[in-house]
Amino acid sequence: MKQLAITSALALLLASTGVQAQDNTPSDNPELSEGAELLNRGFQLLLEGLANEIEPLAEEWSDGWADMVEKFGDMQTYHPPEVLPNGDIIIRRRTPLDPAGPGETDI
């Protein structure tokens, strides 16, 4: 997950510098060129800061995802989630569990 956050930040960084790379003609106005360079650097710093902020969240999210996958197992054994009119969310199994499974007894 850490790799995904870094890859996303790198893609955004390259996208922000791609605009400058398309215009290779020198500008007649040096102030305009300097402003464009400052904007480019500002975007780079912004994206680097966002990547640093997102990295811990991405690690936390990946831990939560791993816990959910461990709990549910193969997600193909479940129907898509349903939202009930009262706001509850239910996830039904495609094939119900055996009602007389371990831990249950007939009285």
Automatic annotation (TrEMBL):
The keyword Signal applies. It comes from Aliiroseovarius halocynthiae. Residues 1-21 form the signal peptide. This is AAA+ family ATPase. Keywords: Signal. The keyword Signal applies. It comes from the Bacteria.
